[in-house]
Amino acid sequence: MIIKDAMLETVCGITSRLPENIYLEIAFCGKSNVGKSSLINALLNRKSLARTSSSPGKTQTINFYKAVCLIKMSTDTQGNTALRDEKKTSYKDGRITSPETSADLKKRDMSLYFVDLPGYGYADVSVEAKKQWGRMIENYLNLSRNLKCIFLLVDIRHKPSENDKLMYEWILKRGFEPVIIATKLDKIKRSVLERHIRIIKQELNTNSDIIAFSATDKRGRQEIFGIIDRLLYT
Length: 234
Ligand code: GDP
What we know:
about 230 residues; alpha/beta; 8-stranded mixed beta sheet; 5 helices; 10 strands; globular; binds guanosine-5'-diphosphate; cell division; magnesium; GTP-bd_ribosome_bio_YsxC; Probable GTP-binding protein EngB; P-loop_NTPase
């Protein structure tokens, strides 16, 4: 999958109606300052489409970024097209051999939305603002018909906070299995990586794989795209 174009299409505040999108949505959530905007920019190949800041607690909105992607489709003998199944395709010397030949592959544009949910855990906001945050997220998780996957971001340097744990459980209760991304990978030494990942798994009580990501050197980007690709096939 190649990102061809990206734009901020809709910004929703507490009183806004959610857009009636026809394309699938992938949501990103995590505490403020965890690196959500930086991750979205890195995935979309943009420097500052999503706002990044070193001061947490920005305006609480749900932002819909539309990404136009180039994907590969395969054509069967009847001329029907389907998304190419990477798992069934064999490669030799970097070329596709079976069951599809490279001639069967057609490239096609496909759109999807990256949904940036407001960050939580910022201490300096009123109780009312925190309630509004909860209502916004709950509304989105309950009403979005095209939400396919939620990425939950945690900082790789720290134990997940109580809010991270609550968020994780909240997402599970709503029927989604969040994909955990541990951000700011470049800020820890390679020698402690395994330990930090183990602590995150323990605290969130999960056996799922965790993707370690750095917005600085882009490690983990391909793994995230791998997950998004697989979502497009199902
Ligand atoms: P958000 O509030 O979750 O959207 O977080 P931002 O993307 O605005 O990032 C908060 C701060 O962390 C900014 O100063 C970013 O430059 C920094 N940051 C985010 N991701 C990384 C990363 O992977 N590595 C490093 N070194 N800094 C990061």
